[in-house]
Design goal:
The complex is a heterodimer of chains A (331) and B (321). With 331 residues, chain A is mostly helical. Chain A is built from 13 helices and no strands. Chain A is globular, with a radius of gyration of 25 Å. Classes of the chains: A mainly alpha (331), B mainly alpha (321).
């Protein structure tokens, strides 16, 4: 077990290292000088003033030091949890701004991902080898899979919130309320949460259902299923075995899809102006708040890496083969 | 070597592919691994079944329709994309086929030009992703050894890092962006899935007799890959391209939607972005945000369905008898 996780962890560590380096590299080697563009926004400065201010800012941001030292400083600041100060939400620190948004995103993402994976798997398993159900699940699945996240979100917001008026159309909670642990506030929170959740849930559903359907059909044609069928085992039991085997690749699929799903959550939040990380990204872009953007980038990467690791752990628990082979190696 | 072709899981697109935004969007890495090594299907046979595959034909028809609209459409409108031409927020009419925006811009004009951008991003971004994926997949799968390990590690790293996050950072720092730049960035970040799938395929072909024969007769590695291995999985490569195309279209839509699309011109994602920003939802201007979404969903969905059709043609065991 140690070796398996050791390998995985070192890969993740390497990925993190590369991600941080990218995060550091891009702003520095992109065309355009951040100090210049910042100063150019202040109009009516004399040339000498620009000169002295740019020298000052270069010193303040540590841009006058050699490249390698800047890079080390970046890591040092990171280790202290210092991601700079947000321009958009001045003078709050980037970390505080992000910490305020993360709970919303997680509350949206975690139930949507888990539920759509679970429900999708069941629908897919039911659809396999049942002609009439298959004929409806497949087309619907393909349509859902091909739907851009934000478009489904827009459709839901328009039909259920704007036209039907069943749900609030935007925000995390009503403007008239203040965060408190009252029943009124919590129910308001849930009402605002429901539509973004639903759209994330639905888009994911199609892909999982199709994936599971295909896996089940494959498993039902495997030798072990044929053998069980030949022995006269009840169909239900054979299908249950097939389901459990088909679940493993679906778990891998979940890990591979995480990045995509996170991205989907981000655009969904934008549609509903839901105060999560995705909404922050939009604000950061609109306000050219690069510190915030870089901070969010790191947060997203760390989140995805953590989730990947959790799935690895789940895989070991679910799949006895990984466990036994590892024990064999240890013995 | 010739393992029984799995019934359906061979469909590479049929993974937990979910909505917008994702390089790895369509296909999960696992499916193709189980795909039986390419079964020889003669051209005549392929054409015979292609003409009888409703999935392929319907998918092709939908994509072709939109392609024609994208090519011909702009000729039907003399209005500028952002020109204020008519009444504000007017519903579709004979004069303004798709209605107008809150500012009185013609939605039809924006739509046909946006469609063009979508196809450009799909072809370029998807094509580039497929090419990079092929290069890495072929070399890793054929050479094996430490090179394989190294490329595999790189692939895994790029696979884990959320593509969109990198794109956001990259694109945010570029002041002037065109559709081409966007396509290139998407192509360069969304290849890992293709690389994995092609590596697995190459791996299964590597020790076939005809490849051994070529190696024995002293043919160079590059030539073996181009002349022997690539052709025997040609259909598979084409399907990879289709999936990458769909993926690129979806990623581009997401990027545009959060305001990181082309700074000049229009795209379908940008239309949706504008619609949401300027309260089309609250005002009920459905003609503004429905067409771009329908177009993207239809194009990408049709491509997936086409892919299933193609798979059935080139993989005889999948055909419905």
């Amino acid at each position: 077990v140690k070796r398996y996780f050791g390998r995985k962890l070192s890969l993740y560590a390497l990925t993190f290292f590369i991600a941080v380096t990218i995060d550091w590299l891009i702003p520095r080697f992109m065309p355009g000088d951040p100090v210049q563009s910042m100063l150019s926004r202040i109009s009516g400065l004399q040339p000498q003033a620009i000169e002295s201010m740019s020298v000052y800012f270069r010193g303040a941001f540590g841009l006058d030091k050699p490249i390698w030292e800047q890079y080390l400083n970046f890591w040092a600041a990171l280790a202290n949890g210092d991601l700079g100060i947000s321009v958009w939400a001045f003078p709050q620190r980037v970390t505080t701004v992000i910490a305020g948004a993360v709970p919303y995103t997680l509350a949206l993402l975690v139930p949507a991902v888990l539920l759509s994976w679970w429900v999708g798997n069941h629908i897919g398993a039911l659809a396999a080898r049942r002609r009439w159900l298959d004929n409806t699940v497949l087309p619907v699945g393909y349509i859902l899979t091909a739907t851009p996240y934000m478009w489904l979100a827009i459709l839901l917001a328009w039909s259920l919130a704007s036209v039907a008026g069943l749900f609030p159309i935007s925000g995390g909670y009503s403007m008239s309320l203040r965060p408190a642990l009252t029943w009124q506030f919590v129910s308001d929170l849930i009402a605002h949460w429901f539509l973004p959740f639903l759209s994330l849930f639905l888009v994911g559903l199609g892909g999982w259902a199709i994936g599971m359907r295909n896996m089940i059909i494959y498993e039902l044609e495997a030798d072990y299923s044929r053998y069980l069928q030949a022995l006269g085992t009840p169909t239900g039991l054979v299908r249950r075995y097939a389901y459990r085997n088909a679940l493993l690749p679906q778990l891998t699929g979940l890990a591979l899809q995480l990045g995509v799903i996170v991205a989907g959550a981000l655009v969904t939040e934008v549609v509903f102006a839901y105060p999560g990380v995705g909404y922050l990204i939009l604000q950061a872009i609109l306000n050219e708040d690069f510190f915030l953007l870089q901070g969010i980038f790191l947060f997203v990467i760390v989140g995805v890496l953590l989730a990947n690791f959790l799935i690895d752990v789940a895989y070991v628990i679910v799949d006895p083969r990984t466990r036994t082979s590892m024990q064999g190696r240890l013995a | 070597m010739t393992r029984a072709a799995p019934a359906a899981p061979s469909l590479p697109q049929a993974g937990p592919a979910s909505g917008a935004a994702g390089g790895e969007h369509a296909p999960p890495g696992r499916a193709p691994v189980r795909r039986a090594p390419a079964v020889a299907v003669s051209t005549r046979e392929a054409v015979f079944f292609a003409a009888r595959s409703p999935k392929l034909l319907v998918g092709l028809a939908i994509v072709a329709t939109f392609l024609v609209v994208a090519i011909v459409g702009p000729a039907f409108t003399s209005r500028g994309v952002y020109e204020y031409v008519g009444p504000t927020g007017a519903p579709p009419s004979a004069e303004y086929w798709f209605g107008t925006t809150t500012f009185g811009q013609d939605v039809f004009t924006q739509f046909v030009h946006g469609l063009r951008a979508t196809f450009i991003v799909g072809f370029l971004g998807g094509g580039l992703a497929a090419l990079v994926g092929m290069a890495i997949g072929f070399v890793a799968g054929y050479r094996g050894g430490w090179l394989d390990e190294l490329l595999n590690m790189v692939t895994n790293i790029v696979l884990v890092i959320p593509t969109l996050a990198v794109l956001i950072i990259l694109v945010a720092y570029l002041k002037a962006r065109g559709v081409l730049v966007e396509a290139v960035f998407i192509g360069l970040t969304s290849w890992p899935w293709a690389a994995r799938a092609i590596r697995a395929q190459t791996f299964s072909l590597r020790n076939r007799d005809f490849v051994d024969l070529a190696r024995l007769s002293g043919v160079s590695t590059a030539r073996i890959i181009v002349r022997e291995i690539a052709p025997s999985m040609g259909s598979y490569l084409f399907m990879t391209f289709i999936l990458m195309f769909g993926g690129a279209v979806l990623i581009a839509a997401s990027l545009d939607f959060i305001g990181l699309g082309p700074t000049e011109g229009i795209s379908l994602g940008l239309m949706m972005n504008n619609a949401v920003l300027w309260a089309a939802l609250q005002l009920g201007l459905w003609w503004w945000f429905i067409p771009p979404g329908v177009a993207i969903t239809a194009i990408v969905g049709a491509m997936y369905v086409m892919n299933v059709g193609l798979d059935e043609i080139f993989n005889p065991r999948l055909r419905e008898m």
